Amino acid sequence: MLNKKMTTNNNYYNPKQMAIREKVFNTIIRCFKRHGAETIDTPVFELKETLTGKYGEDSKLIYDLKDQGGELLSLRYDLTVPFARYLAMNKITNIKRYHIAKVYRRDNPAMTRGRYREFYQCDFDIAGQYDAMIPDAECLKIVHEILNELDLGDFRIKVNDRRILDGMFAVCGVPDDKFRTICSTVDKLDKMSWEDVKKEMVNEKGLSEEAADQIGEYVSMQGGMDLAERLLQDHKMSQSKQACAGLSDIKLLFKYLQLFHVTDKVVFDLSLARGLDYYTGVIYEAVLTQAGTVSAANEAQNDTNAEESVSVGSVAGGGRYDGLVGMFDPKGRRVPCVGVSIGIERIFSIMEQKAEASPQKVRTTEVQIMVASAQKNLLEERLQLISELWNAGIKAELMYKKNPKLLSQLQYCEEAGIPLVAILGEQELKDGVVKLRVVATREEVDISRADLISEIKRRTEA
Amino acid sequence: MLNKKMTTNNNYYNPKQMAIREKVFNTIIRCFKRHGAETIDTPVFELKETLTGKYGEDSKLIYDLKDQGGELLSLRYDLTVPFARYLAMNKITNIKRYHIAKVYRRDNPAMTRGRYREFYQCDFDIAGQYDAMIPDAECLKIVHEILNELDLGDFRIKVNDRRILDGMFAVCGVPDDKFRTICSTVDKLDKMSWEDVKKEMVNEKGLSEEAADQIGEYVSMQGGMDLAERLLQDHKMSQSKQACAGLSDIKLLFKYLQLFHVTDKVVFDLSLARGLDYYTGVIYEAVLTQAGTVSAANEAQNDTNAEESVSVGSVAGGGRYDGLVGMFDPKGRRVPCVGVSIGIERIFSIMEQKAEASPQKVRTTEVQIMVASAQKNLLEERLQLISELWNAGIKAELMYKKNPKLLSQLQYCEEAGIPLVAILGEQELKDGVVKLRVVATREEVDISRADLISEIKRRTEA
């Protein structure tokens, strides 16, 4: 596997990987900033009790710190719960923030004792009491912008609503106390066939075959605003107030998404469930639809232990969670929130594979010029010149040798992708010029010292 | 304290603090990249055994993870040891890298059970077998560039060499096995008077009064290249081969620093010791010399528990550690290294205090324009326009309300420092224009939709 060459070890990232990561981060941060987001930071540890009861079955993956007689601490499992706690703690009722930071989870604890996983999450959230679906639509616009700009291939954004799911379960005859567990099973539809999902519902979770079949009909439905309208007329679905509220919001959401010109990528999909307990309204997930990239993503999951609760091909997900902040407020004050998490680790893996497949080398520095010498005993002159360049903001390197060979200086440039070389020699010093060499073409031209900086900028800051 | 207003809690950072941090990071990263550095990342946990025996007395501050039956893990204490391990593990013999990441230390464990501290370190290191003092000089140039650009006030960079200290101890009659402990005491000279330091040497560490007095004479010496030359002639000092090697390198270092035009800020100071065990050659530390900022820095230490082993007013430090990588290589292969760590947490605190003292507000977003409406029922038109702006790369916000009041939209801009407002009304829509309002001057001008984007760029991307 080509990918192995780049990956030195789990959680170690070499300069080539970091260069790719930086590019991805920059694209995403640029988008978040374009939408007016601020950023905050929260500690890597939270009180164990803060995390308890927020992640459903996944709580077993929380990593605890050694009990040293003080507070019991755990490593943060995601960025959403710390965000909610931050809002409650500081009584913040309105904020649009992004947060890019590492989270920590235990590897399947039964199988690999004590091993852990460390990976980035990349979240954008809007908190505040606003008119319906406006911030929700912006979150989807953001996903659309980011996936377009990263150029990962074609994608779809699936949309659903927790209230539609719950309403559907109710009208299909699922007992109230089985909503969550049946929801988890529906969530597996992107990895399992309907037959297997139905088997799990009936055999493992004790649902009646009839109820399962009714669910089966609904979860096969996909569409747009028209589907939401049809379901609002559906004789069964329309009996659920919850489902109707969700369906009306989906309609409104599509109206706004039309104004954003992104409906070509968005599909209302009743099989989308998403695992986490805290969602209360609209939910969404972006998936790559091209076979090539999907298999790359699939692989990424095995290689770098990509993010939990992100299904095959999934590169972003999120939804509305109006109740979470209230759980941390002493008076239970609610702050409605909606957000999206970009599946950044999977995107890194795809970008790394693309880079490996491309004939173009990944540059790990942005150096514009190498300050070189053609003869011996010119270290002082090189130091003086490079100092001038640094002071003028030029990215420049020199070899840390008193008398490097010209050839090895030029070879270094070829390997590192440095486009220009400033060559100093006795004659050039006498003439007050520098020989500027273009590495790619081997063209050489004498430039006066006075014009050197502007010439470098002209040739490398296009 | 003004500073308290910004600090919500230890390890929580609000948008204002993050905006200041981002600015500082950008300045520093720009400098590291100008010098051709790549970046890497290493995991937040290391095997406990990796960290053992590298930090001398400070080892008690290492934070352990819960023993869950697998490997014993500790949180990284700094970025230097993980870097050295990374080089050895991947057999890398040449690299110039920066690494900005969080490290973790226990708070004085005897006093505050279980509490920990989390803070950024910001390191630049050059690894490789090179000609003497060239990379070392570049590290000092980098410190000079960063402190200049951050504009923290006047500063000095103190320079010394472990070999000069060891040679000095030897010729002053310090027994070999007391070098390290006497060195720790010398390290306290920036916080304690010579009298108290001498007392500790004699009474606590059992050094003879005569030896202490001889040390006292040397450690009061400060100068430049001239001092190194004088000490090379010093009848006692010149008896130590080690000291002479160090002094010759200091001479060479100053020669290179002269070519970089930075000697005005650099002082050869025989009292500079630095605590960590792994230094083998040149060491240095940058301190702010202005009373105001020094007291601010001092305060920062109490407030945010700034970095260990950084003395009062210190904002950067580092040195040469030629033996550390070899400790992680199975065959003990040496990779000489020199590096510098920027005292970023202290710099953040100083910048926050400066921001609080300044009449200018810190902006937490870069939003260029607010898309507003002057009448009711224009949400769709606002959504359409803002989508066009986002697609053109303009940073834009709108209020998440169907019918916001114009006044509250304008007030939002004033508070958030958004410079422009695009106001939509029935008339403007009819005329195919947007009323562009400059928030600061209240000037309003009609701009055609076709010209809007270039007009926004012209006015905000100066």
TrEMBL record, chains A, B:
Its EC number is 6.1.1.21. GO terms for biological process: histidyl-tRNA aminoacylation; mitochondrial translation. Residues 20-359 form the Aminoacyl-transfer RNA synthetases class-II family profile domain. It is an enzyme of class 6 (ligase). It holds the Pfam family tRNA-synt_His. It catalyses: tRNA(His) + L-histidine + ATP = L-histidyl-tRNA(His) + AMP + diphosphate + H(+). The keyword Zinc does not apply. L-histidine binds at D78, L79, T80, R105, Q121, D125, R274, Y278, Y279. GO terms for cellular component: cytosol; mitochondrion. The keyword Oxidoreductase does not apply. One of its GO terms (molecular function) is identical protein binding. Keywords: Aminoacyl-tRNA synthetase, ATP-binding, Ligase, Nucleotide-binding, Protein biosynthesis. Belongs to the class-II aminoacyl-tRNA synthetase family. NCBIfam families: hisS (TIGR00442). This is histidine--tRNA ligase. The gene is HARS2.
